[in-house]
Each structure stands twice: as C-alpha cells, then as structure tokens.
Design brief:
This protein is mostly helical. The protein has 5 helices and 2 strands, in the order ββααααα. Helix 1 (22-47) runs parallel beside helix 5. It is elongated, with a radius of gyration of 21 Å.
C-alpha cells in the first residue's frame, strides 16, 4: 500500500523505504560475513596450524580493526540517515577506541534516553552475534573432525 504525502497542495505517491538500507547491510550482511570468515580462520589456526603467540596477536588485531571499521561504516550510514554531522576526527577515534567511540556516538546523536535504548539494542546484537559465531565454530569443528583434518586425539580431554 502506498503512502500519500501532501506537499504544497499536490498529492504524490511515495514508495516505502527499503528494509535493506546501507546501515542494515552493514549489520545483517557485512558483519556476519566478516565474523564467519574470522571464525573459520580461528578454528583452522587453532586446530591445524601450530599455536604461535605472535600470529594470535596479529589475528586478534586484524579482527578488532575489522570490526571497528564495520562500526565506523555503520556510524557513517546512520549519521547520513539521521542528518547528524560526524566530526572529522571520528574515523580515527572509532578505529582506535572502538566500542567507546560507538557508545559516544550513540548518546551524542540520539540523546540520553534514546542512547540507552540504542545501547540495549547493541548489547542484544552482540549477544546474537556471539551465539551465532559459537554455533558456526562448533559446526566447523565437527566438519573438520568428520573429514579427518583434525584427529580426535588432538582435542583436549
């Protein structure tokens, strides 16, 4: 059903806004794909390759920076949608400070009450992502065990 909008005495039909906006693409496509890719690499590195502290730290750094870049992309699309002007130093802040800069953005762009509501949605989103990557990790481990890539003897008892 189309909405009718009255503009200066004229009636123009408007199409409903699409569900998959740019910021929702980041949330529902790019972040899950990135997390799935990271989970696959994490399971493979932990089971097939030798554990190396330096490689693990580099892997963690790449994961953190990747998630922070996704958070920045979401903030940029959200600010465009809301008409909120991001500061010119915000990209650096979100890549370096991550979650703290995201929380700052949520409260600054929405106000106190809506900021707390947005933080609640963020926590729910994080919980769903953690559950989903845990399921993906278990599935990958089962596939590696069934295919013989990882011998059962190598699992901790």
């Amino acid at each position: 059903m189309e909405e009718i909008q009255q503009n200066q005495g004229t009636t123009e039909p408007t199409s409903p806004s699409p569900f998959l906006t740019d910021k929702r693409k980041v949330l529902f496509i790019y972040v899950p794909l990135f997390l799935t890719f990271i989970t696959i690499l994490s399971v493979v590195f932990a089971t097939v390759l030798e554990e190396d502290k330096t490689k693990s730290q580099v892997f963690d750094l790449v994961t953190g920076v990747g998630l922070n870049i996704c958070a920045f992309a979401w903030c940029r699309f959200d600010s465009r949608e809301r008409g909120y002007q991001l500061s010119r130093h915000f990209p650096i802040a979100i890549v370096l400070l991550g979650a703290f800069a995201l929380l700052y953005y949520l409260f600054k762009s929405r106000g106190l009450k809506a900021g707390f509501i947005s933080v609640g949605w963020l926590l729910l989103y994080i919980a769903v992502c953690v559950a989903a990557i845990s399921i993906v990790g278990v599935f990958i481990m089962i596939v590696l065990l069934l295919t013989g890539v990882v011998p059962i003897e190598s699992l901790p008892t």
